[in-house]
Amino acid sequence: MKQNGFLKAAGFVLLMMLFAGSAQSQNKVSLLGVDHFGINVPDLQQAVNFFTDVLDFKVVTQIGPVPLDSNWKEANHMNQATGPVTIKMTRAGDGANIELFYYDKNKGSTTQPGGDDIGATHIAFYTADIKASIAYLKSKGVTFLGEPFTMPVGDTEGETWVYFLTPWGSKMELVTYPNGKGYEKHNPGVKLWSPKNVPVKLSAADTLSKGQLQQLATRHLEIWNNTAAAARLAGLASLYTANVLFVDASYVSTGQEGLNTFIGNLQQSHPGFRFSLARIEANHNMVRLFWNYGDKAHPSLVKGVDIITVEQGKIKSLYAFLDTVSK
After folding, report:
1. Domains in the chain and their CATH numbers?
2. pLDDT, tens only, 126-151
3. Which range is least confidently modeled, 4-13, 43-52, 107-116, 170-179?
4. Rounded to the nearest 5 degrees, what angle is found at the Cα of 258, between the Cα atoms of 278 and 198?
5. Which residue positions does the secretion signal occupy (predicted)?
């Protein structure tokens, strides 16, 4: 899958907004999680094009066309004149799969359910950058039902969401909550699924070569030495994920804006200081970057190390440790 399964669309790091419980929490019926959602579509190729070309899914399996007998149709409340079914399973991100159903010579209803109709559904996709996602989808001609709204209070405080339509009129959603939701402040015993809790999956693309390691170190320190806030932010966007986690002894942030603010404040506190590379080493996608920090007269006045996690060539998390300060 392109970008190792993540929705790339202009940084479209889309993940399925689904709850996946553990076997322990679902032991009454031995459920492990949500496997897939099924959607009936009026035009199979149109649906495949939308999910692959616009949302960057990949079609993995196909069944059919399969003729359906009269007993099956009766049990599933289908019109007896409806033709064979073709099913394609699609995949993206770390949530559930989406299964597309197309019935040839379909005699069922072609009217989309209304918002308050029983059985009406929607699928929400998580994105780390909802503004970029909206801009990209609009460039593809996708229709949105209003503007994004951020929940101000309550259990979903901090969540931003907006609905959009597929080409055949099904309602779907973009959602993001980079700093968590309101209910999490109360330390609940059960937490909803979140992309932040999805384990990192290593692949060959996450194992850095010596050349890639050196390039990462060079770009990382160039960004931290850049005193122009706007240019620095553009550099962060090219090297760091949209929801990059940064942790310092006295500062924690999620996202490029918070990291850019920290770097700017650091530069203001130490005018003329610059970072330089001491050494760098890596174990697959984990990096230890040892650095010096100081002015021209004392370039190694401060020494420290950054613990970096790399995912798909970008820095996903950065923990900064201060080792020594020369007197």
Report:
1. 2-197 (3.10.180.10), 204-325 (3.10.450.50)
2. 887 888 889 999 999 999 999 999 99
3. 4-13
4. 85
5. 1-25
**Rounded to an integer, what distance in angstroms lies between the CA atom of residue 184 and that of residue 192?**
9
Can you give the pLDDT at residue 199? Answer: 52
- Alpha-carbon dihedral of residues 208, 209, 211, 216, nearest 10 degrees? 10
Q: Which residue has the higher pLDDT, 265 or 92?
A: 265
Band (213; pLDDT cuts 50, 70, 90): confident
Q: Is the pTM of this model over 0.90?
A: no
State the Cα torsion 49-51-57-62 to the nearest 10°: -70
Contact 33, 20 (CB under 8 A): yes
* Beta carbons within 10 angstroms of residue 281's beta carbon: 10
Tell whether the model's pLDDT for residue 239 goes beyond 50.
yes
Q: How far apart, in Å, are the Cα atoms of 167 and each of 41, 45, 93, 102? A: 10, 11, 22, 15
As a three-state string, the secondary structure of the chain is: CHHHHCCCCCCCCCEECCCCCCCCCCCCCCCCCCCEEEEECCCHHHHHHHHHHHCCCEEEEEEEEECCCHHHHHHCCCCCCCCCEEEEEEECCCCCEEEEEEECCCCCCCCCCCCCCCCCCCEEEECCCHHHHHHHHHHCCCEECCCCEECCCCCCCCCEEEEEECCCCCEEEEEECCCCCHHHHHCCCCCCCCHHHCCCCCCHHHCCCHHHHHHHHHHHHHHHHCCCHHHHHHHHHHHEEEEEEEEECCEEEECHHHHHHHHHHHHHHCCCCEEEEEEEEEECCEEEEEEEEECCCCCCCEEEEEEEEEECCEEEEEEEEEEEECC
